[in-house]
Amino acid sequence: MTEDLVLVLGNKNLSSWSLRPWLLLRHAGISFRERVVPFESQGWHDDIAALSPSRRVPVLHHGQLVVWDSLAICEYVADLFPDAQHWPAERTARAVARAVSAEMHSGFASMRRDLPMDVVARHPRRTMSRETEDDVVRVQQIWTECRGRAGDAGPFLFGRFSIADAMFAPVIWRFRTYDVPIADGARGYYETMLALPAMQEWERDAVAEVAASKAQAAADPRPAQPPDPQSAQHCYAVIFTSKRTSSTPEEYDATARAMVELAAKQPGFLGIESARGPDGVGITVSYWDSLEAIRSWKDVPAHAAVQARGKKTFYERYEVRVCTVDRGYKFPS
User: What 3-state class would DSSP assign to 121?
Assistant: First the structure.
């Protein structure tokens, strides 16, 4: 029954949605094959379009059946393996488990935006927005209340591991990465999840993934170049003006290089040029052959994750302008 289960994932370091069904399957000891489609891969859009109707990860293939969306995949796995009891057996507990899973699935927008999952990174504790702080409090309230109901039935939200634990697993990494304070009532659950063998396996894979990406960047450090003025006529330019914070210069430089390399692989990319002064003010201009290419680049998952991180960590402020390039010339010609 399981030999043709294939779970398609994004980068393990960044893809919170991918973690959820993967963790459910791995913790239960269910046999499946995983296929990682890295967000920065040159053919991401074409590859994922061929694998997922929503053009997003995760997606589960079971024979001819395709199931997308993390919660839908978890529900399908629960139906496929009823003996694994992926939902609590008792009706009241099962109803609450479904409610908190749905809340995690559809809510906490501010926390997702300000604390994007980045398993490997570590950021110093910072003051959160009121909305994100409310999200953090609510998550820990859920953990504390669910654990209070579970009592001695087991260390997870409803005693034994369930879909609810899989749904909240990415928050464990978010809280660790951004050094979020953990309330006493939630700390035991937080530490239980960090110690889970399947979570530790995911972390090892994320560390290896990031190391491989850095090694590849070091092996080919050539920066993308601005386009020739003649070939760049009648194209589009994205002008990104920013003021850097004073923190994490090494991480910023590595992230910036990775984003340039990723942009250079996107359809419609023509070139890029950048400069930054000692006061932290910089300007980067990237060139594209169409507005559609610019929109597609904005939505590349790894780029979107870095944009969210930039607001939290890298920039005091920035402005983005999109304009047309009608002509160009240079000296010397």
Answer: coil
